[in-house]
Amino acid sequence: MRSLLVQSFSSPCQQVMGIGRNRKLLMERLVFPASCIRAVCLHTNVSRVLITGALGQLGFGLARILRDQLGHHNVVMSDIHKASECVRDSGPYVYLNVQDQGLLARTCVEQDIGCIVHYSAILSADAEANTQRALDINIIGLHNVLEVSRQLNLKLFVPSTIGSFGPESPRNPTPDLAVQRPKSLYGICKIHAELMGEYYHTKFGLDFRCLRYPGVISEHKPGGGTTDYALKMFHDAVTNQVNICCLKLDTRLPMIYIDDLHHATAQYLQMPNNLLKKRTYNIGALDFSPEELALEIQKENPSFQVTYKPDYRQRIAETWPEKLDFSNAMNDWGYRPKYTLETACQKILRSLKSKLNDP
Ligand SMILES: NC(=O)C1=CN([C@@H]2O[C@H](COP(=O)(O)OP(=O)(O)OC[C@H]3O[C@@H](n4cnc5c(N)ncnc54)[C@H](O)[C@@H]3O)[C@@H](O)[C@H]2O)C=CC1
Ligand SMILES: CC(=O)[C@H](N)C(=O)O
Fold it and tell me: Which residues are in the NAD-dependent epimerase/dehydratase domain (predicted)?
C-alpha cells in the first residue's frame, strides 16, 4: 500500500519533475484523494521546485498553487530581499541572487531542486531607467539559470512577455510565430531568453518551457512594468478616487487576471513533453484600453476619475501587441482562461476594499 501511495503521489510531481514514463502509466491507473497524495508528498524524497524572484507580483501566488499540488516543503521561494513573516511561515524561503552562479548551483544541490521557475527580472519601465541593472539581471541572471539547469539536468521555466514583440509584429492578433524586433531593452532581453532557452533545449536536451505572459492584473501594488498602469488604477480607485494614467486612453494591450496566469503556468509545467509542440507559447486572455478599464472600475466606483498624461511608457506600450493569438496553447495543452474583465475587476476591487477596511 505504501509503495502505491508513493507512486500515486508522484503523478502530479512526476510530470513537473520529469520522472519516467512507465511510472506515469502505472500512476494514471491509480486514483487517490488529494489530501492523501499531499500527505505522502511530505514524506517522500522527491526533487523540488525553486522559484527565483519570488517576492515580486507573481511568485507567492504560484508558490501557493504548486505547494498545493506538490506538498508544502517541495516549493522553495527565493529572492534578494528579506521575506515577510507571512512568506516565511508559508514554506521554505532562501536568499538567492541570480547573478551569483555559484550560489545558484549550491542552492539547487543543497535544496534538492528538480525544476526552476525563473521569475527574477527587471520589468519594462524600470529597465529603461536602469540599463546596466536590467542587463545584469535579465541577461547574466538568465545565463546563470540556463547553465545551472543544464549542469544539474533541471527542468526550467522562464516567462517571456508581450514585450518580446515589436512594432513590426502583427498586432491584432499576434501569433506565436511572428517577426520579433522589440524596441524596449526588456523586450530585447526576453527574446534573448526565448531563443537561448530553445537553443539549450535543442543542443543539450534541456526541458526548457516558456510562456509569453500578457500584462498581469491583480491586487498587487504597481511595480516597474508598463502594464502596471492598471494596478495603479485599481489602487487609486479604492483610495483617493483619482488616477493619473501614464498611457493614452485608447492604448489597447493584452492582459490576464493573476489566477488564470498561475493556473496556466502550473498546468503547463505539468504537461508531458510529448504533448508540447513548441517550447514557447502565447497565453492571452483579455485585451482592453485604459479607458475601458476605467469604465469597468466606474461600475463599482462611480466617482472614480482618470486623467491621461502619457509619458515614456506610452512609447513602450505602442510597440506591443493589442491582442494575442493563443490558439496553440488551447489546442496543444488545453489552456483555458476563465476571468473576463468584469469578473476580474470585481474580484480585485472587492478584495482591495476589504483589505483597506480591515488591514
Ligand atoms: N507582472 C507582469 O505583468 C508580467 C511579468 N512577466 C514576467 O514574470 C516574471 C515575474 O514578474 P513579476 O513578479 O511581476 O516581477 P516583479 O518585478 O514584481 O518581481 C521580480 C523579482 O525579482 C527580484 N530580483 C531582482 N533582482 C534579483 C536578483 N539579482 N536575484 C534574484 N531576484 C532578483 C526582485 O526582488 C523582485 O522580487 C518576470 O520574469 C517578468 O518579466 C511577464 C509578463 C507580464
Ligand atoms: C507585460 C510585461 O511584461 C510587464 N508587465 C511590463 O509591463 O513590463
Answer: 49-284
C-alpha cell at 353: 476594499
**Rounded distance from Cα 164 to ligand 1 centre (Å):** 15
Respond yes or no: is residue 186 known to be catalytic. yes
**Cα–Cα distance between 301 and 298 in angstroms, integer?**
4
For the CA of 215, the closest atom of ligand 1 is: 3
Q: Which helix (H) or strand (E) holds 50?
A: strand 48-52
Closest among 42, 117, 40 to 76, alpha carbons compared: 117
CA angle 127, 123, 17 (to 5 degrees): 130
Q: Output the nine-digit C-alpha cell for 238.
A: 479604492
Phi, psi at 13, each rounded to 5°: -65, -40
The structure's pTM equals: 0.90
In this predicted structure, the answer to whether residue 248 has a pLDDT above a threshold of 90 is: yes
**Which listed residue (93, 95, 119, 186) is catalytic?**
186
Ligand 2 shell residues, CB under 6 Å: 123-124, 161-163, 186, 215, 225-227
Is 0.90 exceeded by the ipTM?
A: yes
Task: Tell me if residue 139 falls in helix, strand or coil.
Answer: helix
Residue found by looking up cell 505602442 in the block: 318
The grid coordinates listed for 251 are 492604448
Local confidence band at 147 (pLDDT 50, 70, 90 cut-offs): very high
To test the ligand 1 pocket, which listed residue (87, 119, 156, 189) has its Cβ within 8 A of the most ligand atoms? 119
The single residue listed with the C-alpha cell 516549493 is 75
Cβ contact 56:261 at 8 Å: no
